[in-house]
Amino acid sequence: MKTTNVNATDRKLAYASPYDVEPAHEVHNPVVRAGMSVVEMVAWLVVMAALSIGMIVLLWSVSR
């Protein structure tokens, strides 16, 4: 079995270990990314603040 290990290929080894794992083919979706942009973070904070203020107002009006 030919080597799939990059280090083994660099060292010119003819055959790989049977325990070498073939690299997975990564499917990169450009829509999905890690993290948030600053605009998304600010929008998220505004939405959460509006919801929490609404909940406080609702609880305040029910308690009277």
What does this structure look like?
- It is a single chain.
- The chain is an all-alpha fold.
- The chain has a domain at 35-64.
- It is 48% helix and 0% strand.
- It is built from two helices and no strands.
- The radius of gyration is 27 Å and the shape is rod-shaped.
- The N and C termini lie far apart (78 Å).
Based on DSSP secondary structure assignment, what is the total number of beta strands? 0
What global shape is seen?
rod-shaped
Helix content: 40-55%
Number of alpha- plus pi-helical segments: 2
Short description:
The protein has 64 residues and is mostly helical. 48% of the residues lie in helices and 0% in strands.
Q: How would you summarize the topology of this molecule?
A:
Blueprint: H1 6-10, H2 38-63
Structural descriptors:
64 residues; mainly alpha
